[in-house]
Every structure is written in C-alpha cells, then in structure tokens.
Predict the structure.
Amino acid sequence: MQKQAIFQSKLLPYLLVAPQLAVVLIFFYWPALQAVVQSFLLQDAFGLSSSFVWFDNYIELFKDPAYFESIIRTFFFSFAIAVSSLSFALLLAVMADKPLRGVMLYRTLLIWPYAVAPPVVGVLWIFMLHPSLGVISRYLRAAGIDWNPLLDGNQAATLIILAAAWKQISYNFLFFLAGLQAIPKSVFEAAAIDGARPMRRFWTVTFPLLSPTIFFLLVVNIVYAFFDTFGIIDTMTRGGPGTSTVTLVYKVYSDGLLGGNLGSSAAQSVILMILVIVLTGIQFRFVERKVTY
Amino acid sequence: MVEQEGIRRYVAHIILWIGIAIVAFPVYIAIVASTQDNALIANGQMSLLPGGHFFEVYYQTIFVGTSGSTREPVANMMLNSLIMALLIAVGKIAISIISAYAIVYFRFPLRMPIFWLIFITLMLPVEVRIYPTYKIVADLNMLDSYAGLALPLIASATATLLFRQFFMTVPDELLEASRIDGAGPLRFFWDTLLPLSRTNMAALFVILFILGWNQYLWPLLITTRDDMQTIQVGIRKMITTTDALTEWPIVMATAVLAMLPPVFVVVAMQKLFVRGLVETEK
C-alpha cells in the first residue's frame, strides 16, 4: 500500500489529518472509552459518587431475564428479516436477470425504497395495519383474524419484521442483480446443454455461484436489523406491547431515557460494540477471501 | 442463449410487477391518505382512491403543521433535515479527502497509527455509544445545534477508505508531471487530484445525503426545541398523542414529504447512487 512518488513536508500532513482526527477522537474514541469505563462503575442513587465494581454490571445484566429475552428477540428479528427479505429479493433479481424488455425500468421501480427512512417505514406500515383504521386490517378482520398488533405481542413482532424486510428488499435486489450479472452466461448454457431444467439449474448452478453475495448480504442485513430497525420500532410499537418488540438497541435507548442505571446502560453499549465488531470481522474476512479467491 | 419460452418470460414480467406493487403499495396508501378527510380515516372508512383535500392538507402540513401535537410547520423540519444532511455529506467528504491525501501522499511519523485510528471507527455506528456521545455534545454546548446534529455522524472512516483506495490507483506519473511543472503538494491536490475524484465524490455525496437525511435516533436525542426538529423526528411526535387525536392526513403528507428528497435523489441519480452504494458497503 505504499506509493512511490510522495511529497516531503513536515507539517502539512498533520494539518491535513487534523480535522478528521479531532472529530474521531472527540466524537468516537472519547465516548466509546466512556462507555467502557462506565460499564465497570456503579453510581450511587444521587449520581454523586461511583465505585469500581468490576464485572458486576455485566453479571447483573445477564441475570436479568428481560435482557436475555431481548438478545434472543434481536437475533430472531434479524434472522427473520434477513431470510424473508433476501428470499423475496432473490426471486425478483432472478426474474430481472432474464433478457426482458424494460429491465432498467423494473430496476428503478424496485430500488427506490432504499431511500425511505426507518421511522417513515414504521409510519407507513402501522397506518396500513392499524387495528382500528388500517386498510389491510379490515380484510384481516373480515377473514376472521383477530388483528391487533397494539395488544398482541406476536402480531407486533410480525408487523416489525414485515416492515423491516420490506425496506431491505431494494438493497438486496440491487446486490443480487449485480451478483447474477457477474456470472458468465456460458455457465448456464452449459448446464442447459446438459439437460438441467430451470429449477435445477437455479439450485445447482446459480445458487452456489451466488453464495458469496448471499453471505455478504446476510451479514449486512443482520447488522441492519440490529440498528436501523430502531426507527421502525419506535414509530410503530415503542417496544410494546409490554416488552415484546424491545431489541438490544431499543433497550439501550429506553433504559438510558429513564435515566436510571448508567452502569448497566454502558455495559449494554459495550456488549453491542462487541457484537458489531464480531459481525464486521466476519464480513471483512469473507470479503478478503472473495477477493483472493 | 438458453431457451427462453414465451411463458417463462410472461411469468417473469408478472412476478416483477407483483414485486413492484408490494414495494409501492404502502406509499400509495400514504399518498391517498394525505388527500382525504381525517374523520373518514379515523372511522376506518378510508377510500383507496385519492380524495379531494390535496391542496389544503399539504398547505397546512408545509406552512402550519398539525393543530394538536407538534404545531411546527413541516417546511421548517425539512430545512433542518436538509442542513443536517448537507453538513454530514459535505463535512465527511471534506475531512476525509484531505486526510486520505495525507495518508497516501506523505510519509510522516505516526502515519500508520493515525490510519488505524481512523479505520477502526468503521466498525461502530453511533447507536452503540449513544449516551456517552450525548453527554459530550451536551458538555460542548451543542445540543439543539446543527454542529451537534452533524459532527458525531461525521466521525467514521468509510469515505477516508474510499478516497485512499482511489488515490492508490492514480498513476505516479501524474505527480511527477506536476512536480516538473513546479506544483507543490497543495497545487497538485487542487489541480490534479480533486478533478480526478469528482465522480467518487459525487457517488459518495449521494449516499451520504440519503443517510444523513434519514438519521433518526441521534436527532431524536439531541434536539429538544421544536424548531430544531428534523422531519424524521417530527413525524414521530405527530403520532405521540392518543390515536383518536392523530391527524392522519397530515402525518401521511409529512411521510410523503420526508420521502421525496431522498427518493428523488435515488431515481434521478441512479448511476451515482448504485456506484456509491456498492463502493461504500464493501
């Protein structure tokens, strides 16, 4: 990563990196460090003094069934969102990869939801599926379903998964389409000559060749579900009913809002950091492998 | 070519149109609802066809706001969102491109440690360090300010890495040539490197603008004054009150207005958008 032709200057390079370094140190490293330090401290009831308690905050956290439940819930949401969104997007991408007329138009009409903000996604979906005034709820009730996501935790979870998956379709579609177009057409022709039917061709040729893209998108979708669902949850259910839609990020937010336990909130932040670092690590390793392979 | 019987093609067209319908339906409902009377919607009798209140609803939304919950004209919220998004996009590009320039084109002590310090920020979004960051912004007296909205979101390395990668591909001969012409490091940056980076900057700008416009959790925490609200925060506050009081046509009009700028950017600058997306997410 070394350039041969370079400039000589003592001061200039420092001036050039200074702005970014300042922003990163003040708004990234300092708060991250604070979170780590605080997660080892216990504040008294008045916030006047604090004492070092080693891993007590973490131990408390893992003893708390509500925290454990929200871990399970977050992973379940992530998995459900990723799988439903990926499979639907893959279906659309496989269709759009065929030599059809108007493929560019299809692409345009499918990618714009990427630009819709999570809280807006939440508003759109709760409005359609609102128990008393939603347009779709009418039909659900007519079909005999007792639909009320504001009271029923499972229905609330379903609603959030649907809305979040909807938003991810465009992103996944775009990357799948790019992945499909990168597969040489001769591979399909060879499979066709061997007599493989289209469905079989998909599972034995397309799917394996697309697996790097699938894996990449799986990680990205899970990270997305960890963080960006916050806006969707906050506008749709506020974590309710009860705590049935409280994810890890939502819990950090709402526990901190109540202002109670700084140490616990910091410990939650640190656990989230570790989770994200692990996920990013997996993603980097994999991207590297794809490049060298 | 592999056999493409007519039927298969029809099936593909149909599936794609179903996909488009699913993707568009929630937005269609929002547009329709934003043209109707609130009483009808609240009764659960909303029509699936546009109503006749388009102008009055949008007029009230943009210039007046809801009559109950927030009372803040959405035009003002959009202005706040626009300023925040522009600050994030321009700020990030500006500080990233110069630091990438320093890291690629200079040798100086601490070069690699600084690169790593910046690189690591790639991993952690603002959500995981939200309250400590809040505290720092509060200590710096930047609550309810545009700087407070934008600066913590600028602290990440995506753009720096992109520019670094791009600079590595710029042939060394260009530098030699401009050195023969007597250009110093700043001249070379301004006259040669910056023009070459134009497409990269544009692609990055498109993505960062959309991400900035769509920020939610951070502005939610650090704006307390109604007149500093961004549109994403404002829309949430509109449905805070009990359901019966929610002014749905205005909420939906706000949702439509919140979608317009970023969706326009995606559709109008599709090439740059796709390029930016593919580059930043790798």
